[in-house]
Specification:
Chain A: Belongs to the FldB/FldC dehydratase alpha/beta subunit family. The structure holds two protein chains of two kinds. In chain A, helix 1 packs across helix 8, helix 1 runs antiparallel to helix 9 and helix 7 packs parallel to helix 9. Chain A has a domain of about 130 residues: Rossmann fold. Helix content of chain A is about 50%, strand content about 10%. Chain B starts with a strand and ends in a 5-residue tail after the last helix. Chain B has eight helices and ten strands. In chain B, the strands form two sheets. A five-stranded mixed β-sheet of chain B has the order 3-2-1-4-5. In chain B, about 55% of the residues are buried. By secondary structure, chain B is α/β, with parallel strands linked by helices. The chains are: A alpha/beta, B alpha/beta. Chains A and B meet through helix 14 of A and helix 2 and strand 8 of B. The complex binds iron/sulfur cluster (SF4). Iron/sulfur cluster (SF4) binds next to helix 4, helix 5 and helix 13 of chain A.
């Protein structure tokens, strides 16, 4: 097995088995894990405490018990998160960090059914004011305080600034990875790309950084490959389950860039420099744009996606619409119109973690590849 | 030269045999779809009608939901591309196609050469599809082919949900028990189908000529409701159930003569 293959296979197995990653971390450090609900929680605070932040993104699952707590029109990520809460899947977590930037999360945060303590905090939506930074820094101060109490640790400013640097380094390396991967679509297919990115949620970040860095340098040592298929940019919350990515791959599509909340949105901006770590983390939220969960009066998502199409010479945008995700559904007509005006081709596919039948997605993707 | 298009849908199977890319020698439909005996039966029927055998076919292309299970086919093409091809052949002025089949609703925008410019499909709910009409016809005890006639006698269309088949079914049952005339309920059912399809058409951008195809296009009540909603005339493709199979047969012909891009 080449070094490239072995790095990919190691990262893929981590991304497929978070439970084992948590156990390994405990064995190694004696410390446990803290769950991180979507979206945009300051993971750095957990990292600075020496605990493993673990992303909670639901999973492909049939839903039954969760029906008693959620309406049928709640998104499938949260349906599956609720189902797994009820099954005790998250009970090994020392705590769960719970941001609430959408209505579903707001409601779900008040009915956590697992046994771990939950720390809920709010991102301000009037983001461009200085007061928003102050408010969020204060929220983060409370998060830190609660974590210190639950985990029985002290989290110093120095440790936190250090963790921010480790995260920024990971963000930078991930941006490099997605750029490099775009040139090697035969090696980094859509499923591998996703697994390499997803492994970030279950690894201590400097370890992930080191592996991806090595992967990047192995990749760029290879000649850039000719690619005969079509290149796309993905946008949305996530492009799971893997069957969806498989369909893209089978129809000759390569993912050359993404604007997924589970992927590039998390690392396209660094946390800005400064001395007060909580203020720095808060400022990240102010500078972050182009996401349905962060009020954006300039509606920059469409132009941003169009830029990505240009920069990465993509043939089209694939909209991975999480079924019943109202923030994403509200954004769609705005950027769709911008695409139409600019002549950017786009495909709308529905993401539903509960589904086991992908015939419709296959038809859509095949038709789209025939259309391009 | 003969080519064949096979369209295996969720609730019907269709075959078209084409001579020299222009003459339809056979265009057969059987009202059962993928996973049944339908595909084999419709194939045999079309061949015997044309007096030909599979060996006479220069190329066979399969389309539709069950396209990957057709062993006789040399290739599969999605039903969206095939619908566009078939409809454009029959109605060259077509700009928007509304295709309502057994379990899918699609709106397709064509470019001036008949290529697919954009398309939208329904979400997974059966509301607005052929299956939705099946359910309603059973609840109402009115045959599918009589629905349009009932609709034409409606005086005050009832309101029927367009978001969920299960809700819609219980709405219809309660309207029946409240004594609402079947004519008015059926007009409401047709409007509900139309609003679902038109939602997709609006996303595509509505532009004339608008052509309807798929099994549901045979229900003129739906066609009228769509035309009313879009405030534009709607052309029903000739023999609307076989347009995708026809498109597949044309693709097969073009591939044989190397006319494909
Ligand atoms: S943003 Fe959308 S997908 Fe995410 S939790 Fe909220 S509703 Fe669900």
């Amino acid at each position: 097995m080449s070094r490239i293959e072995s790095i990919i296979s190691e990262l893929s197995s981590i991304s497929n088995n978070p439970k084992k990653a948590m156990e390994d971390y405990k064995k190694e450090t004696g410390k446990g894990s803290v769950g991180v609900m979507p979206y945009y929680a300051p993971e750095e605070i957990i990292h600075a405490a020496g605990f493993l932040p673990v992303g909670i993104w639901g999973g492909q699952k049939s839903i039954s018990k969760a029906r008693a707590y959620l309406p049928p029109f709640a998104c499938s990520i949260m349906q599956s998160v609720m189902e797994m809460q009820l099954e005790g899947v998250y009970d090994d977590l020392e705590a769960v960090l719970f941001p609430v930037p959408c209505d579903t999360l707001k409601c779900l945060s008040q009915k956590w059914k697992g046994t771990s303590p939950v720390i809920v905090f709010t991102h301000p939506q009037n983001r461009k004011l200085e007061a928003a930074n102050k408010f969020l820094a204060e929220e983060y101060r409370l998060v830190r305080e609660k974590l210190e109490k639950i985990l029985s640790v002290q989290i110093s400013d120095e440790a936190l600034n250090n963790s921010i640097e480790i995260y920024n380094e990971n963000r930078k390396v991930m941006r490099e990875f997605t750029d490099i991967a775009a040139n090697y679509p035969n090696i980094i297919d859509p499923i591998k790309r996703h697994a390499i990115i997803k492994a970030r949620f279950f690894m201590e970040k400097s370890k992930h950084t080191a592996m991806v860095k090595e992967l990047n340098s192995e990749l760029i040592a290879l000649p850039v490959e000719a690619f005969t298929g079509k290149k796309v940019v993905l946008t949305g919350i996530m492009a799971e389950p893997n069957e969806v990515l498989d369909i893209l791959k089978d129809n000759g599509f390569a993912v050359v860039a993404d604007d997924l909340a589970q992927e590039s949105r998390l690392f396209r901006n660094d946390v800005p420099s400064g001395t007060d770590p909580l203020y720095r983390l808060a400022k990240w939220w102010q500078e972050f744009d182009g996401c349905s969960l962060a009020v954006d009066t300039k509606k920059s998502r469409g132009p941003m996606l169009m830029d990505m199409v240009k920069v990465y010479k993509a043939d089209a945008v694939v909209v991975c619409m999480m079924k019943f995700c109202d923030p994403e559904e509200f954004d769609y007509p705005i950027y769709y119109r911008q695409f139409e005006e600019a002549g950017i081709k786009s495909l709308f596919i529905e993401i539903d973690l509960e589904t086991t039948s992908f015939e419709q997605t296959k038809t859509r993707v095949q038709s789209f590849s025939e259309m391009l | 030269m003969f080519t064949m298009g096979i369209d295996i849908g969720s609730s019907s199977s269709k075959v078209v045999i084409l001579e020299d890319g222009v003459n339809i020698i056979a265009g057969e439909v059987i009202q059962i779809g993928t996973g049944s005996t339908g595909p084999k039966r419709v194939l045999d029927e079309a061949l015997s009608k044309a007096g030909l055998t599979l060996q006479d076919m220069a190329k066979i292309i399969a389309t539709g939901y069950g396209r990957s299970s057709v062993e006789e086919a040399h290739k599969q093409i999605s039903e969206i591309s095939c619908q566009a091809k078939g409809v454009f052949f029959l109605v060259p002025s077509a700009k928007i196609i509304i295709d309502i089949g057994g379990q899918d609703v699609k709106a397709i925008r064509l470019d001036s050469k008949g290529g697919v410019k954009q398309f939208f499909m329904n979400d997974k709910c059966a509301a607005g599809t052929g299956r939705f009409l099946d359910v309603m016809s059973r609840v109402l005890e009115v045959n599918l082919d009589e629905m349009a006639e009932y609709d034409s006698r409606a005086t005050e269309p009832a309101t029927v949900s367009s978001t969920c088949t299960v809700f819609a079914e219980s709405e219809v049952i309660s309207q029946l028990s409240n004594g609402v005339a079947k004519e008015n309920i059926i007009a409401g059912v047709h409007q509900s189908v139309a609003s679902k399809a038109c939602g997709l058409a609006y996303r595509c951008g509505v532009e004339e000529d608008i052509v309807m195809c798929g099994g549901v296009a045979k229900d003129l009540g739906v066609v009228r409701a769509i035309s009313k909603e879009l405030k534009k005339p709607v052309i029903v493709a000739p023999n609307p159930q076989i347009t995708a199979a026809l498109g597949a047969a044309i693709f097969a012909f073009e591939e044989v003569i190397g006319a494909n891009k």
